[in-house]
Design a protein that fits this description.
10 helices, five-stranded parallel β-sheet, 370 residues, Rossmann fold, three-stranded antiparallel β-sheet
Length: 370
């Protein structure tokens, strides 16, 4: 009996210590008493990192520098008030393994400058983020950047939202809930919940969807020109919810005095050839429905058409990079992420698409704006 009491006492004491430690973690890193929720966005700030990229693509200098400033942005500007175009997206926008100065934002800005347009392009991409996170950026991140008043917000989107499940709680972001809901409070404020969600998302990206950064030898892939599915009606609920999130993003963009630009993302899970579309022949599943690379192309076109439709509805610009047949194996190091050659193409194509839309930009140097 004494042994049982001693064991029980140890368990109780350890449980109390464990709970106290959890409480301390939540107080320090959670958002219960602090309105700053940037840690929930998986965002890096005020850092300079070096990456070895020789395992991803060929480069004369295989060590690249990746930096984000104190506001969490990538880019070259003197103060946030100079930013003319703010780019928002996931890892294909962030470009973790493209060096400073060679991202598609850098290429876009350089093209504007060469044309005499002093349009500063800043990178607010976050690895793994979808439109769910983009919406939260307007609440948790952008308001804290002093003097941030971009004329345009460019959303480079599609691929991450393709994998988002329908019916998630996040689709209620447009509504302000008046009633107290403990589950929602925990999701919004808990550091531990955020950590578990991040680990789960990383696992799904790496081992389920396999969309992590890795080298793909496209010459060794097996391709097909035959789709598995006859129609894609099973996407409708997801597409409807995606459209609603795009509407929220457009409204939030206009609310801060900017104009939205939506851009579709190319992928190397398919190839657009003169003879038609070829896709990976490996089979994956979408809500229980098998699909291959040709299906993926057709499904992404449905998603991109929703993007275009909402852009028209909201008076936003739409640039359809995904449908262009110019993409080559050398533009990608995996199915979703681009090499410096691909980034060069993206930046150049965006410049060609936007140069006439950005006529209201001042033809002066950034220093002259002070």
């Amino acid at each position: 009996m004494k042994r049982f009491k001693k064991t029980l006492k140890i368990l109780i004491v350890n449980s109390i210590i464990f709970v106290i430690c959890l409480a301390i973690i939540e107080i320090i890193f959670g958002g219960w008493f602090n309105a700053n929720r940037l840690n929930r966005l998986n965002m890096l700030k005020n850092c300079v990192l070096q990456y070895e990229v020789s395992n991803l693509y060929n480069d004369q200098i295989p060590i690249i520098k990746y930096s984000r400033d104190k506001y969490g942005l990538r880019g070259s500007y003197l103060n946030p008030g100079e930013i003319g175009i703010l780019t928002v997206g996931g890892s294909a926008t962030d470009q973790r393994f493209i060096r400073d100065g060679e991202t598609w934002q850098d290429i876009l800005q350089n093209n504007f400058q060469q044309a005499g347009l002093a349009i500063v392009v800043a990178n607010a991409g976050i690895d793994g983020q979808s439109t769910y996170g983009h919406i939260k950026n307007f609440e948790w991140w952008f308001p804290g950047i002093p003097n941030l008043k971009p004329k345009y917000i460019l959303f480079y989107i599609g691929l991450n939202d393709f994998y988002k499940e329908a019916g998630l709680e996040c689709d209620g972001l447009a509504h302000v809930r008046q009633s107290y809901n403990l589950e929602i409070k925990i999701r919004q404020n808990s550091a531990l919940w955020h950590m578990i969600r991040t680990i789960r998302g990383t696992y799904e990206a790496m081992f389920v969807e396999k969309i992590e950064h890795r080298f793909i030898d496209f010459s060794r892939q097996h391709w097909t020109d035959k789709a598995i599915q006859c129609n894609y009606d099973f996407m409708e609920k997801r597409l409807d919810e995606y459209a609603n999130r795009l509407r929220i993003l457009a409204d939030k963009t206009y609310a801060i005095g900017a104009k939205p630009i939506f851009v579709s993302q190319p992928s190397r899970r398919y190839q657009i050839t003169p003879g038609g579309v070829r896709g990976q022949d490996s089979v994956r599943f979408y809500d229980g429905h098998p699909y291959n690379g040709v299906d993926f192309y057709q499904m992404m076109r449905k998603l991109d058409n929703v993007t275009k439709s909402v852009a028209v509805e909201k008076g936003a610009s739409f640039v359809d990079l995904a449908s262009k047949p110019i993409w080559e194996d050398s533009d990608f190091y995996d199915f979703s992420h681009m090499t410096p050659e691909g980034a060069q193409k993206v930046g150049t194509l965006l410049y060609e698409a936007l140069k006439n839309k950005c006529t209201d930009a001042e033809k002066t140097s950034p220093q002259d704006k002070k």
